[in-house]
């Protein structure tokens, strides 16, 4: 543990391999002593998930899988935001081809993240609405800094959280809480999210956040990895298979939904509102 902390705080070059050169959108740091990967989303200002960021994430997850990563921390380089969710500009007046390509990459990335055999922890160092919340919920453990917001707020935007977003939430906070949260499109403060189990721990600041994330991975990496991963994937397989076996239907649902005039109107108003802030 001491070695790991020293590497992180001092940035000891011999112990950390940094792959940020391969893609600027995701900074990947791997500790050579422990193998632990830190995947830092780096699309300023708010890590909105456009095709390019999703593709960079997917590529990074494939790399980690090939290298038999023992554990991964997902976090963000933004000071305010973990991820602002799906990039609204990808959904506002797209061509059919662009929308289809975007949604398919979102599916690819989520399937990879949700099915990782190794332990994953979301170090949520900022706001985490909608697709940002999905990323956090796809990790095994969630630790969040205080005074930020997290949740699936789609309803409030006049759009519908896809079934697999909803399933992820239901799997974590249970049927009743998820139904209430999803119908209202409710955003929770960090403290409220802890109370309902949407996040597992709160941290005092970024340093504490990363320390707690490493502590979680240390504990998980002490377990027999094969048994651990079989149980994890077993718990997730129904949610995964639903999407994997229904990818085309899910794309069709997205396309039908996103091209509705009412949805386009809601997106336009929301984008304008964000720009005027
Ligand atoms: C039809 C099927 C739908 C499928 C399901 C959809 C899922 C989704 O994920 S939809 C996206 C939902 N996301 C949100 O509701 C978040 C919107 N953003 C915010 O609430 C805030 O930006 C914030 C709390 C995340 C961060 O606040 P702050 O630090 O104050 O930053 P600003 O609001 O000033 O934003 C900076 C900059 O970024 C633009 N922006 C914010 N979010 C998005 C986004 N999701 N997509 C694209 N662009 C976004 C914002 O417009 C600002 O732009 P500029 O004015 O040009 O700087």
From TrEMBL:
Source organism: Nezara viridula
UniProt KW tRNA processing keyword: no
InterPro entries: ClpP/crotonase-like_dom_sf, Enoyl-CoA_hydra/iso
Role of this protein: Key enzyme of fatty acid beta-oxidation. Able to isomerize both 3-cis (3Z) and 3-trans (3E) double bonds into the 2-trans (2E) form in a range of enoyl-CoA species, with a preference for (3Z)-enoyl-CoAs over (3E)-enoyl-CoAs. The catalytic efficiency of this enzyme is not affected by the fatty acyl chain length.
One biological process term in Gene Ontology: fatty acid beta-oxidation
Pfam families: ECH_1 (PF00378)
Assembly, per entry: Homotrimer.
GO cellular component annotations of the record: mitochondrial matrix
Biological pathway: Lipid metabolism; fatty acid beta-oxidation
Compartments, record wording: Mitochondrion matrix
Catalytic reaction list: (3Z)-decenoyl-CoA = (2E)-decenoyl-CoA; (3Z)-octenoyl-CoA = (2E)-octenoyl-CoA; (2E)-tetradecenoyl-CoA = (3Z)-tetradecenoyl-CoA; (3Z)-dodecenoyl-CoA = (2E)-dodecenoyl-CoA
Major localization class: mitochondrion
Coiled-coil intervals, chain numbering: none
Keywords of this entry: Acetylation, Fatty acid metabolism, Isomerase, Lipid metabolism, Mitochondrion, Transit peptide
A Gene Ontology molecular function term of the record: delta(3)-delta(2)-enoyl-CoA isomerase activity
Record's protein name: Enoyl-CoA delta isomerase 1, mitochondrial
């Amino acid at each position: 543990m001491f070695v790991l902390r020293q590497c992180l705080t001092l940035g000891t070059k011999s112990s950390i391999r940094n792959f940020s050169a391969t893609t600027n959108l995701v900074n990947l740091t791997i500790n050579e002593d422990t193998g632990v990967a830190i995947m830092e989303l780096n699309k300023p200002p708010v890590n909105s998930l456009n095709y390019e960021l999703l593709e960079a994430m997917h590529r990074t997850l494939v790399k980690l899988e090939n290298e038999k990563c023992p554990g991964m921390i997902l976090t963000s380089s933004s000071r305010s935001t973990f991820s602002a969710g799906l990039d609204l500009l990808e959904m506002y007046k797209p061509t059919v081809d662009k929308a289809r390509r975007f949604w398919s990459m979102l599916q690819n990335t989520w399937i990879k993240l949700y099915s990782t055999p190794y332990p994953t922890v979301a170090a949520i160092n900022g706001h985490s609405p909608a697709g940002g919340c999905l990323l956090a919920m796809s990790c095994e453990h969630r630790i969040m800094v205080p005074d930020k917001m997290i949740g699936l707020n789609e309803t409030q935007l006049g759009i519908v959280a896809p079934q697999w977003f909803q399933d992820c939430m239901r799997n974590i906070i249970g049927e009743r809480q998820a139904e209430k949260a999803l119908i209202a499109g409710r955003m929770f403060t960090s403290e409220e999210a802890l109370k309902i189990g949407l996040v597992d721990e709160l941290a005092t600041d970024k340093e504490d956040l990363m320390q707690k994330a490493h502590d979680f991975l240390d504990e998980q990496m002490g377990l027999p990895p094969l048994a651990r991963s079989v149980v994890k994937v077993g718990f997730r397989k129904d949610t995964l298979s639903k999407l994997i076996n229904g990818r085309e239907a899910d794309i069709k649902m997205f396309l039908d939904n996103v091209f509705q005039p009412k949805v386009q109107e809601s997106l336009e108003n929301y984008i304008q509102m964000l720009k005027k802030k």
